[in-house]
Amino acid sequence: MAIMAETRLMTLQPDGKLLKGARPSMDEEFLLDALRWMLLSRLYDEKVIGLQRQGRFGVYSPGLGQEASIVGSSMALDPERDWIVPQYRELMAIVRHGYPLEKITATYMGKTTEATRIPEGVNVLPTQVALAAQLPQAVGLAWGLKLQGKDAVVMAYIGDGGSSEGDFHEALNLAGVQKVPIVFFMQNNQWAISTPRSLQSATPSFSLRAAGYGFPGVEVDGNDIFAVYQAAVEAVRRARAGDGPTLIESVTYRMGFHNTTDNPSRYEDKEQRADFERRDPIDRVVRYLRSLGLLDEQREDNLRAEVSAEVDRVIEAAAAEPGVRPDGMFDNVYERPPARVLKQREQFRGSNGNA
Amino acid sequence: MAMPERNVVEAINNALTEEMERDPRVMLLGLDVGRLGGVFRTTSGLIEKYGASRVVDTPLAEASIIGASLGLAVSGMVPVAEIQFLGFTAQAFHQIGPQLGKYRHRSRGRYHAQVTIRAPFGGGIRSPEFHSDAVEAQFVQSPGIKVVMPSNPYDAKGMLLEAIRDPDPVLFCEPDRLYRLYRMEVPDGDYTVPFGKAVVAREGKDVTLVAWSAAVELCQRAAAKLAEEDIEASIVDLRTLVPLDVETLVNAVAATGRCVIVHEAPLSAGFGAEVAATLAEEAFYDLDAPIARVASWDIPFPPASMEHWYLPSVDRVVEAAKRTAAA
Ligand SMILES: Cc1ncc(C[n+]2csc(CCOP(=O)(O)OP(=O)(O)O)c2C)c(N)n1
Ligand SMILES: [Mg+2]
To answer: Distance from the CA of A318 to the center of ligand 2, in angstroms?
Structure first.
């Protein structure tokens, strides 16, 4: 018995040419905006990895190589009414959705305070370290928004690794039963730390799993911004129309490392990596725009310089954010803390000479 | 007009009904809570009154019941989730302690989780495996979660209303052995029992019994038996483990100088250990005898036909109280 994999949605070929008969899902201005976001993602990653090496930045999981996936998915959302429930490797998605990059940067620089939290009115939930735990929560959020008659869609992110968790199954199952307005966006970047995709599941395509929950699944070339955006727009449209969830598998590659403590040379397959290098999501867009005469070398250099300056400005602003108070760790545990906890805070203040 | 009398099931049902009537954001979700009205009938009649979108029979998956409740709360709903038996919180443990409990903290106050988890528990009703496990202490190690353990119908209603209105997550453990044991006066209409206020359920000068949930009822029977032998036991009903009312506990133990802690959970690292440690810190010089604990044995909950040998009994409490009173 053969299990059929879905066909993979692709529009823009690695050489920057449109697939025969395919039409771009973004107009030129929108594409230039997308390119700007992708460059911000890449240049930011490169810069903060450097900062991390100098001990000025926390453990960090870059989105290198996944920029089309991260940016293209989030651009299908309306930050005013839609919600993002992240895992952790979608930084620019939540930034585009309204969480200021300098606040996130400050947090990575140790400034975990109320001033750097997700601001009021920004429809983003905290990043999730416990893999897949965000998914049932995202389903509840979408369910509650639907019950209250709000015109809102939730986009929940998950990795290929996280999709093996029980919470993944429970969440997709419940989402199907309640037909909630949600898009499950899986970044299949081929790795869960050192565990390859082939050891994560025997399914030929993660997108096939959606059938088991009673809603559509689509597989897209995650390094093709047009394809990612097109699939996301369609899934958001379905959710908004009351047609329920969609699972999108975005096939991409983690060009960096798992995080700043990881060394992929111990386990990575060089050929696979080289193959994806040729399919770089940013190069592809640049080639396409070149072929249309919309981006000459000068303009590209200017764009890179602009984005790079923005990254510097963000890091400077983050460095200027006030630091933590030691007893701040007692804040925001309860609205009305138990007497015992208040007593412990007094004890801590006494021992720590903290006001 | 005589005040209505209710058992624990009726008190809980009454609290849920009144709160769903008062606050349209309140919704119930869990296994069999709708059409069946819950395996113990605590939610009986509610789906008929409030419909299937506010009283939801969920898929059989505990982690998603709790995880979805968190998301529902963030969206602006006030979910009351039922885990059919406390033992099956294991399947949802991560969504309870680490997720619900920490959500306010993890989001640095941007979000909070106004979620109540109701869960029946405890032995003495000959339930199948896993159904009776008294795992309340596991959640005491999850900061952010309140752990509340009513011991009678009046408290069950007042504490459930308090739980639903609490902006933070509350684990509300229901003593299934007491569900239909007796009725007492439980008023119609609104009242709450505040958390962090233990109560002296019986006055006595010779020894102080400390308990919560169904073990309070056990202590009442033990105290009656002790009285026949001229030993007057007081009983402290802690009512909530988090927050813990240290003051009432310490005062009641200091008054007799003798303390026996009684709980249904296995002895080692049960919440009784926390009570004993607190008394050692705060009441050491008022103690006239070593603190004693009567608990279940440190073994798995046995098959129903043997549960009476496993659970703390009147005889074991009486024996420990006599020994402590005489020491
Ligand atoms: C429940 C859980 N188990 C283990 C870990 C440790 N861990 C962190 S990231 C990771 C791999 C995740 O892979 P994937 O979901 O594919 O996301 P990616 O890092 O590739 O973006 C692991 C095992 C964790 N954070 N949570
Ligand atoms: Mg991965």
So the answer is: 29
Instruction: Say which amino acid occupies B157.
Output: K
pLDDT at A1: 44
| CA distance to partner chain B, nearest, from residue A321 (Å) | 16
Q: Is A185 helix (H, G, I), strand (E, B) or coil?
A: strand
**Residue B78: both structure tokens together:** 């006030």
Mean pLDDT of all residues in A204-208: 97
Q: Taking residues B30-57, what's their average pLDDT?
A: 98
Task: Please give the number of the atom of ligand 1 that sits closest to the Cα of A61.
Answer: 19
Extract the tokens encoding A64. 């290198």
Q: Choose one of A60, A88, A131, A191 to mutate for the ligand 1 pocket test, by most ligand atoms within 8 angstroms of C-beta.
A: A131
Distance from CA of A267 to the nearest CA of B (A): 31
Q: How far is A112 from chain B (nearest CA, A)?
A: 8
How confident is the model over B182-199, as pLDDT tens digits? 999 999 999 999 999 999
Q: Model-level pTM?
A: 0.96
Tell me if B33 sits within 8 A of B55, measured CB to CB: yes
**B97 to each of A85, A156, A242, how far by Cα in Å?**
20, 22, 33
Tell me the per-residue pLDDT of A36-69, one tens digit each, with 9 for 90 and over: 999 999 999 999 999 999 999 999 999 999 999 9
Hey, are the CB atoms on B72 and A144 less than 8 Å from each other?
A: yes
Domains of chain B in sequence order: 5-185 (3.40.50.970), 199-326 (3.40.50.920)
Sketch the domain layout of chain A as residue ranges.
6-324, 327-355
Average of pLDDT values for B206-227?
Answer: 98
Mean pLDDT over residues B137-148, rounded?
98
pLDDT digits (tens, 9 = 90+) for A280-334: 999 999 999 999 999 999 999 999 999 999 999 999 999 999 999 999 999 999 9
Which protein residues touch ligand 1 with a CB less than 6 Å away?
A: A 61, 89, 129-131, 159-162, 187, 189, 191-193, 254, 258
Q: Is B64 on the interface with A (CB under 8 A)?
A: yes
Instruction: Tally A–B CB contacts below 8 A.
Output: 142
Q: Considering only the top CATH level, what class is A6-324?
A: alpha beta
- Centre of ligand 2 to C-alpha B179, Å, is 48
Please check whether residue A135 is in contact with residue A158, taking contact to mean a CB–CB distance below 8 angstroms: yes
Q: How does strand A195-196 pair with strand A191-192?
A: antiparallel
Q: Which residue, among A151, A172, A193, has the nearest Cα to A61 in the 3D structure?
A: A193
User: For residues B147 and B149, what is the distance between their CA atoms, to the nearest angstrom?
Assistant: 7
Other Cβ atoms closer than 10 A to B184: 14
Taking only the tens place, the pLDDT of each residue in B147-159 is 999 999 999 999 9
Residue A7: is its pLDDT beyond 90? no
Touching check for B70 and chain A: CB below 8 Å?
yes
Dmax over CA atoms of chain B, in Å, equals: 59
